[in-house]
Amino acid sequence: MISSKSRLLLDFKNYLLTEKGCSDLTLSAYLTDVNQYLLYCKDKNIEIKISDESNIENFLNELSIEGINARSISRKLTSIKNLYEFLYREKIIDKDPTENVLPPKLSKKLPDYLTVEEVTSILNCIKVDSPYDSRDKAILETIYGAGLRVSELINLKLESVFYEECYIKVLGKRMKERMIPLNRVALKSIEEYLKKYRGFFAKDKSEFLFLSRRGKKLTRMDIWNILRKRAKEAGIKKELHPHILRHSFATHLIEGGADLRSVQEMLGHSSIITTEIYTHVNKKQLSKIYDTFHPRS
User: Fold this and answer.
1) What sequence ranges are listed for the domain Core-binding (CB) (predicted)?
2) Rounded Cα gap, residues 286 and 45, in angstroms
């Protein structure tokens, strides 16, 4: 029988140290990933020792829907594989459910993003004359305006928005808080939604900023459906996912001349290597940057 979560993590940590000889950095990453998986199992009422291949694949699929890249998902699978290897060696389970679970294919394909015109078309297409229109416009303006992950968006609270300072406070990965600038257009959309329409959704008291029609916190799938609906209304035919607005935010900032470190901080990336993927600026922009900054130009 598996002991408490804290005991399991402690035993697993000792296994990684003594049997695997993991470095501090690897150890921290593995424990963070496994803790995330354990929380997922708890949320889905899945018993760790009887979790099967489909449960693990569903967990990885949810990460993909959220926009987590293939490399990070592959690492999380490695962490989970180590967990089940430990449980198998300790005879807590008699079969490793990760044995046939394959990591996602790593691709060098650049992230999909929308042009400035396409984003503008989607946002301008939403007429704010109903509760759903006002809420959806505020949601999409906020994701694009601050480059948020979907999980960060749905966890925004009423107290997260600082109107005078034009900032929002976001709780990112590993519970790290960061303050992100937010443009006046997005802030105005939020204010209008709060003033006129949030009461329509708020069946009970809720601390969350954006609510479902039942007055609950929105889900990742809710945001996906909102984006697809509004993009269809705007005539955008691309295959969309909520993370595409985050990619667009970063791409447009860098194409506009923003420095990589500032974009890294706004996105909440722990490593600038992750942010560098957004440097796929077009040749015209590269030429402009070269002409501006190269001493021989």
Assistant:
1) 3-88
2) 51
